[in-house]
């Protein structure tokens, strides 16, 4: 039997990672007895410290969906405008299929290699110390830029709701303080409930706009005339290569929560339920993306606002951002927590301080979250073309960590097996080798081409606007 099919049956409550038989609390959620348990990543977990293995399968769904769904979903209508409705839908479904397989491989690889906590650990296992350093650095840098983007998104929301009630630089600083405070919660298990709240709020905001554009006379960006409005949506677009690859990159970015899934499965009570949570997450995310992208683009056409929360006019925009703010806060605290956690584990792994409430434990953890927050805040506030730079980092690092490593992980676990396979097993092995290789190749192509498109976009944007000033007070919500 191939290694990707060795995931433990869901009816077995035993978790080998804990080194003992746990007692059942609810379906798929376990706790260990006696009070002290062993984990291959965290070492001894006891009642005297944080429980890093406390995420149930429902909490896993919430955390997965919240790392995927943010205001990035509202770039999908503009991607459809570039590609056309049908090519846009096809590209999205292909990306959804590839990333779902990539996400599945994370769960398989974790069960095969219990010592792996992050994509950095997986890189180290496959490529040695250079791989660990490369993927670890890419992971931290990626989430720092996403955290900076989250801070700016919160400032946009606060500007929209308050009609630019304060200097934008103040709002960004407030966002950084909130992100640090809640991002410093030590375990993902404690972030499960906030993730559900944030997910509910962001979906409420998105669907509010979706419904509003369907019932209004015309989008707010369209010419306000007395003539009847007819959407100019395109079934098939005619973009240049740069425009097309940039649009595809934005669709990939909508699924780029993938590198966070290593940490999530590592903190699950029972990792054998990971696949169940993943299927619910990816099905829900894809259905939401298709619904939002199709409806908003159909009714707005080329006049979809950017971000699309402004497509239904100023009043709906305020209401939508009011709903969205808790979701933006949860996203920001998660993307501060994730890179801080792998640095924290790297510093204290193998030490009793990792799972004990010691001064060293708290000092190291808070230093990690504070450091990530400060770097993200400075980058977000000081770089004049930050929006374009986020797109560049997403195309370069988001794609890099969502495609190629997972193809390599399958090959790492299954390459030697091909020598002993015969008949149907041999054919299946060859097919999977081709698929894993395809994922690596297509990921590399999208990474290189998307990076090129993003660089062109950054240059064009800077030539057109000159960027924004460092620590600017200017309203960034586009309010009129």
UniProtKB/TrEMBL annotation:
It is a multi-pass membrane protein. Belongs to the amino acid/polyamine transporter 2 family. The chain crosses the membrane at residues 55-76, 82-104, 133-156, 162-183, 195-215, 244-265, 277-299, 319-338, 359-383, 389-412, 433-453. GO terms for cellular component: membrane. It is found in: Membrane. This is Amino acid transporter transmembrane domain-containing protein. GO terms for molecular function: L-amino acid transmembrane transporter activity. Residues 56-455 form the Amino acid transporter transmembrane domain. PANTHER family: AMINO ACID TRANSPORTER (PTHR22950), AMINO ACID TRANSPORTER (EUROFUNG) (PTHR22950:SF683). Keywords: Membrane, Transmembrane, Transmembrane helix. InterPro entries: AA_transpt_TM. Its main location: membrane. It comes from Aspergillus mulundensis.
């Amino acid at each position: 039997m191939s290694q990707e099919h060795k995931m433990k049956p869901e009816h077995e409550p035993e978790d080998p990672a804990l080194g003992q038989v746990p007692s059942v609390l609810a379906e798929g959620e376990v706790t260990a007895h006696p009070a002290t348990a062993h984990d291959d990543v965290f070492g001894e977990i006891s009642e005297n410290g944080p429980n890093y293995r406390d995420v149930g399968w429902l909490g896993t769904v919430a955390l997965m969906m919240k790392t995927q769904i943010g205001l990035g979903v509202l770039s999908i209508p503009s991607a459809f405008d570039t590609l056309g409705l049908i090519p846009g839908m096809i590209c999205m479904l292909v990306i959804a299929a590839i990333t779902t397989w990539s996400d599945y491989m994370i769960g398989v690889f974790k069960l095969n290699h219990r010592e792996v906590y992050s994509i950095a650990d997986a890189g180290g296992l496959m490529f040695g110390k250079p791989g660990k350093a490369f993927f670890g650095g890419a992971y931290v840098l990626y989430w720092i830029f996403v955290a900076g983007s989250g801070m700016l998104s919160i400032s946009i929301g606060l500007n929209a709701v308050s009609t630019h009630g304060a200097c934008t630089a103040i709002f960004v600083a407030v966002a950084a303080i909130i992100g640090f405070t809640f991002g410093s919660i030590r375990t993902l298990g404690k972030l499960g409930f906030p993730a559900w709240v944030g997910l509910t709020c962001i979906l409420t905001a998105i669907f509010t706009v979706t419904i509003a554009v369907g019932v209004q006379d015309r989008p707010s960006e369209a010419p306000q005339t007395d003539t009847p409005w007819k959407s100019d949506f395109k079934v098939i677009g005619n973009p240049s290569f740069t425009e097309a690859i940039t649009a595809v990159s934005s669709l990939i970015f909508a699924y780029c929560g993938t590198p966070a899934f290593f940490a999530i499965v590592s903190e699950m009570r029972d990792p054998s339920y990971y696949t169940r949570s993943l299927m619910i997450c990816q099905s829900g995310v894809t259905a939401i993306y298709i619904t939002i992208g199709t409806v908003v683009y159909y009714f707005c056409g080329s006049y979809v606002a950017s971000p699309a929360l402004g497509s239904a006019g100023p009043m709906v925009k305020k209401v939508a951002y009011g709903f969205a703010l808790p979701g933006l806060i949860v996203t920001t605290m998660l993307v501060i927590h994730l890179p801080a956690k792998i640095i924290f584990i790297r510093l204290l792994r193998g030490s009793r301080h990792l799972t004990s409430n010691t001064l060293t434990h708290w000092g190291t953890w808070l230093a990690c979250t504070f450091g990530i927050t400060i770097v993200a805040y400075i980058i977000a506030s000081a770089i004049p073309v930050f929006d374009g730079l986020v797109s560049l980092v997403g195309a370069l690092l988001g794609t890099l960590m969502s495609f190629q490593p997972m193809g390599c992980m399958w090959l790492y676990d299954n390459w030697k097996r091909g020598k002993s396979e015969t008949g149907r097993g041999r054919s299946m092995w060859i097919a999977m080798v081709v698929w894993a290789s395809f994922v690596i190749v297509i990921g590399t192509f999208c990474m290189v081409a998307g990076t090129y498109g993003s660089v062109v976009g950054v240059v064009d944007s800077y030539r057109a606007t000159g960027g924004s000033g460092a620590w600017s007070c200017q309203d960034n919500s586009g309010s009129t």
